[in-house]
Write a structure and sequence with these properties.
357 residues, alpha/beta, 15 strands, 16% strand
Length: 357
């Protein structure tokens, strides 16, 4: 019987060719991971998710309370890659033209000259994105989806690779604006860093007690390396059963009684791309249902809107995604469905006892 572990599948890279690419991918990703983890203590799963989103050509939303290292994570990832970096501090008085750029009349040339904004970089760090008005937030919509900016009827291409890493504080905090649904949907994944363990916090005091660890951080990979890795991720094979599983998970969010807005087709694409990147980081040229399971909470939860009744019952979107994972049958090797396994833990990782069909 054919299984998802069968390397003789159709699609995918040839074993020998992928062996070389896979080794390069693993080595480069390991260098970047080690570089970032040298700054962010005790959060390997958060660093891995950030790398997954980068290689899947997505954008990352980091949401948590102040002081847990949201901006530090974004800066560490940006500095670990030899790319152009721009940081935007979102404030209530920030204008859309501050992000996209503006056309200024040149008196000598007697013509308008375009002055690029901060979005024209390979890694864009949007700090406290939900402190700006919705009008300013919407300036990112075109660039995040189409990787281009249109100003005064002229379209300008953005560089490759291109990634937006945005941080935001919980909406309940003073001076914040909730991100519009269209804005949240353009982020491939959302992650919360959380408080460090006591041991990690002690190490942080030693490392961060003097100079900032970012000062000595050297690039661990070049932009050309990242583009090669992205090309390799695009070639990762996804079986029809795994594709159907992703569609079933996303479709279940649209019919769930506790949700008034389910995930969009863009969410399905993002889930599949993230699963490819996760497989490649594990050294595989094929994706498994395990990859989809592990990434579903981070990729889907921030796009969902619970009903008023669910909110009164303190039921979160993350809990709904975990329930959907529990109730959605796993795909079997012959394209059918196998019974689902134990519920996924709150960390968003693979469910205990999950198995490969």
């Amino acid at each position: 019987m054919t299984t998802y572990d069968d390397r003789a599948h159709q699609g995918g890279l040839p074993g020998r060719a992928y062996g070389r690419v896979g080794e390069d991918l693993t080595a480069a990703a390991e260098r970047v991971r080690a570089s970032v983890e040298g700054v962010i203590e005790g959060k390997p799963e958060v660093v891995r998710l950030a790398l997954t989103v980068l290689l899947a050509e997505g954008h990352l939303l980091i949401e948590d309370v102040p002081g847990v290292g949201k901006t530090m994570l974004a800066k560490a990832l940006a500095r670990s890659i030899d790319c152009s970096v721009q940081r935007i501090q979102f404030t209530p008085d920030l204008l859309p033209s501050d992000i996209t750029g503006v056309s200024i009349f040149d008196q000598q040339r007697r013509d308008f000259e375009f002055k690029p904004g901060a979005i024209f970089a390979q890694i864009v760090i949007g700090d406290e994105i939900n402190r700006a008005s919705p009008k300013t937030q919407s300036a990112l919509l075109e660039s995040m989806e189409e990787r281009q900016v249109t100003v005064d009827g002229t379209t300008y291409e953005l560089p490759n690779p291109f990634m937006v890493i945005a941080t935001q504080n919980p909406v309940e905090m003073e001076g914040t604006y909730p991100l519009p649904e269209a804005q949240r949907d353009r982020f491939m994944a959302r992650v919360s860093i959380g408080y460090p363990s006591a041991e990690a916090e002690l190490r942080m005091l030693d490392v961060h007690g003097g100079l900032s660890p970012l000062d000595d951080l050297e690039p661990a990979a070049h932009a050309q390396d990242i583009m090669k890795l992205i090309e390799a991720v695009r070639s990762v094979y996804v079986a029809q059963g795994v594709r159907r599983y992703a569609v079933d998970l996303v479709g279940a969010t649209r019919a769930h009684q506790d949700l008034r807005l389910g995930a969009s087709p863009r969410a399905t694409l993002h889930l599949l791309r993230a699963a490819r990147a996760a497989a490649a980081l594990d050294g595989r040229d094929y994706a498994l249902p395990d990859d989809v399971q592990a990434l579903a909470p981070a990729v889907l939860a921030h796009r969902l809107l619970p009903t008023a009744q669910a909110q009164l019952g303190r039921r979160t979107a993350e809990q709904v995604v975990l329930e959907i994972l529990q109730n959605t049958p796993l795909p079997s090797a012959d394209g059918g469905h196998a019974p689902s396994t134990a519920a996924q833990g709150p960390s968003g990782g693979r469910r205990p006892g999950s198995r490969r069909p």
